[in-house]
Amino acid sequence: MTTKPVLLIHGGAWAMPDQEIAAHERGIANALAAGYSLLEQGATAVDAVEAAVAVMEDDETFDAGRGSFLTQDGRVQMDALLMDGSNLRTGGVACVERLRNPIRAARLVLDKSPHVYFVGTGAERFARQHGMLLCENMDLVVRREQERLYKAQAAELAGLPDETFSGNLEAAIKLQSHDTVGAVALDQYGNISAGTSTGGTLNKAPGRVGDSSLIGCGCYADNLSAAVSLTGWGEPIMKLVLGKWAVDRVAAGATPAEAAQAAIDYLFGRLGGYGGIILLGPDGQVGLAHNTPRMAWGLQTPNGPQLGVTRNPG
Ligand code: GLY
Q1: Is the Cβ atom of 180 under 6 angstroms away from ligand 1?
Q2: CATH fold of the domain at 6-311
Q3: Fewest 10 Å CB contacts: which of 71, 77, 228, 231?
Q4: Rounded distance, CA 312 to CA 270, Å?
């Protein structure tokens, strides 16, 4: 007997303005279609997660791949992780600057390396040795992000308050918006997988690595518990190892919906962090929660797709 496939994805959690909603919904719909059609053809959860995330990396709407936030020196620097819950095989890359699809490099690490994690030029060299083309960093930079960076740096120079910690949530999340993308999938063989990809945070110091590509922080998958992908302010998520925290709740008996909400409550209660989470159990149950004003997500099961940009009722 085969399991009914499930694909749940997110395209960031932040104070998304009304005029950006349509682009996010389009991007989510495209990613969902790409990933789910693979699951319907009998592909693995890892294949579906990789495909869905790659579509969002290719879409400039999101903070992943081309269109990512820029570092202090105006470059795109990206992190990604892919994990197979059936055997815990994992591939991660961080601080890559010349790959259009970091999630595909993560897949190569998962499949072809005895190691788990590569950074910077070593990651790019590994990807190139396994057939990926390198691009110029400027191929990944878009005008919108250059303008956003100039604005953030001008505010910094003018000594304007750092909205990240000012308690002005709307201003902080607009400036530090999080369009990190991610996916979790369950395939017909009963296996789960998770992937997360990001350009990190606006105006980050070169070399900074966020939660997204760190095992158990922004991403985790284990058939014995659940698959998870997070988006949001990376530093608090990392300090709490929040992805692993959440899947452990599922292993202890919580539903993915309960564990997702508990994780976001813990993120805020313990460190005042903001973000969003998607969770999927090996039984196909899903959970989603966020404490940012909005979160873009999509879910597909044999009953069809559902997608939207959720408003935080709080
Ligand atoms: N969650 C993305 C980052 O902080 O890098």
Answers
A1: yes
A2: Glutamine Phosphoribosylpyrophosphate, subunit 1, domain 1 (3.60.20)
A3: 71
A4: 20
